Amino acid sequence: MKVNTTAFPKDVLDTVTYLLPGVPLVNSNDEINTQLLKIRESPSIMRGICSIHSVNNGTVFSYIR
């Protein structure tokens, strides 16, 4: 899936995406193998804690993974 946005540079989108649980560490413009999509649903990839925190005014957020 290709993301088109002018709000954030591509490297920022890649970095934030890497913080999400189950996301493989590949660039957004890389071709994804369908076998990898199945593997990322396995417990060894999906386990762990993901916690999202934000400032009340909605301008800052953070992840714990």
Written description of the protein model:
- The protein is α+β, with helices and mostly antiparallel strands and 65 residues long.
- It has one domain.
- It contains three helices and two strands, in the order αααββ.
- Strands 1-2 form a two-stranded antiparallel ribbon.
- Strand 1 and strand 2 form a beta hairpin.
- The protein is flat, with a radius of gyration of 14 Å.
- The relative contact order is 0.16.
Q: What's the arrangement of secondary structure elements?
A:
Elements: H1 10-18, H2 34-39, H3 43-46, E1 51-54, E2 61-64
Antiparallel strand pairs: 1-2
Keywords:
65 residues; alpha+beta; two-stranded antiparallel ribbon; 3 helices; 29% helix
- C-alpha-based Rg, rounded: 14 Å
Shape: flat
Main sheet characteristics: 2 strands, antiparallel
Distance between the termini: 24 Å
Q: Return residue spans where pLDDT drops below 50 for at least 5 consecutive residues.
A: none
* Count of folded domains: 1
Q: How are the strands ordered across the major sheet?
A: 1-2
Summing up helix and strand content along with how strands pair, one would put the structural category as alpha+beta
The helix content, as a percent range, equals: 25-40%
What percentage of amino acids are in beta strands?
Answer: 5-15%
| DSSP helical segment count | 3
Mean pLDDT: 70
The overall strand count is 2
The succession of helices and strands, N to C, reads HHHEE
Concise summary:
By secondary structure, the protein is an alpha+beta fold.
